[in-house]
Amino acid sequence: MRKFLLFFVLFLLACAPLQLVTPPTFVIKPVEKELPVSTAKFIGEFKVSFYWIVKEEDYSGKRTTPLYLNDGKLLGYFPYKFVRDFKIESCAQLKDGRLISWLKNQGRAKIVDKFLGHGHFLIPLKSLATDPTVIPLGTRVFLPSACKVKMGEKFHSGIFYTHDIGSEIIGKKIDIFLGEKENIRYFSSTNIKSGQKVDVYLLE
């Protein structure tokens, strides 16, 4: 009798319809609640770095290193470390208040009213440098982690724009333009730190 009951129970289980279960999180990448639009496409985790405006007033030392403008004229002589950092960050402010952008393809500086990226003006805390083979220039992207960045009484929207490229920005990397270097303080309470990875979504 017991064998019959056991067989009957097993038979019922075998005939019962299969139930769908929610896939584990490692299978389906969840879209966080902060996502501003439903058409966002998750493209992976990207390593973060930052770049900012280099200020001549922060540098001392002998003014022995020349900088030339895009028209070939000499802009002036500056401390070596200032010129070195300017070429890395690509944007600087001179002591007299003028703004200059570094034109990598020409190896020259250009006096500007707004800092230049690669075909776009740079917007502090909104512009990114990316590898254009991974994220095309002019793309709007969403970083859910940035929604936790508090700036005064408001929080960042999490939306950025790919306005620039960089020789060191290859593959899954993003370089956030801070504007003033001190703006990095806004990211201190989040997981968006240099060298760490964040989720990146493409927005349509």
What does this structure look like?
- This is 3D domain-containing protein.
- Keywords: Signal.
- One of its GO terms (molecular function) is hydrolase activity, hydrolyzing O-glycosyl compounds.
- It holds the Pfam family 3D.
- This protein is mostly beta strands and 204 residues long.
- It has two helices and 14 strands; from the N terminus they run αββββαββββββββββ.
- The chain has helices spanning 2-15, 80-89; strands spanning 41-51, 54-55, 63-68, 74-79, 91-93, 99-103, 108-112, 127-130, 140-142, 150-151, 154-155, 159-164, 173-177, 197-203.
- The longest helix has 14 residues, at 2-15.
- The chain starts with a helix and ends with a strand.
- Mean pLDDT is 85; it is low at 2-33.
Topology (SSEs and partners):
Layout: H1 2-15, E1 41-51, E2 54-55, E3 63-68, E4 74-79, H2 80-89, E5 91-93, E6 99-103, E7 108-112, E8 127-130, E9 140-142, E10 150-151, E11 154-155, E12 159-164, E13 173-177, E14 197-203
Parallel strand pairs: 1-13, 2-5, 8-12
Antiparallel strand pairs: 1-14, 3-4, 5-6, 6-7, 8-13, 9-12, 9-14, 10-11
* C-alpha Rg (nearest Å): 25 Å
CATH topology of the largest domain: Barwin-like endoglucanases
How many structural domains can be distinguished in the coordinates?
2
Percent in helix: 10-25%
CATH architectural arrangement of the largest domain: Beta Barrel
Name the shape in a single word: globular
In round numbers, the mean pLDDT is: 85
Can you count the helices?
A: 2
Q: What percentage of amino acids are in beta strands?
A: 25-35%
Organism: candidate division WOR-3 bacterium
Signal peptide: 1-20
GO molecular function: hydrolase activity, hydrolyzing O-glycosyl compounds
Protein name: 3D domain-containing protein
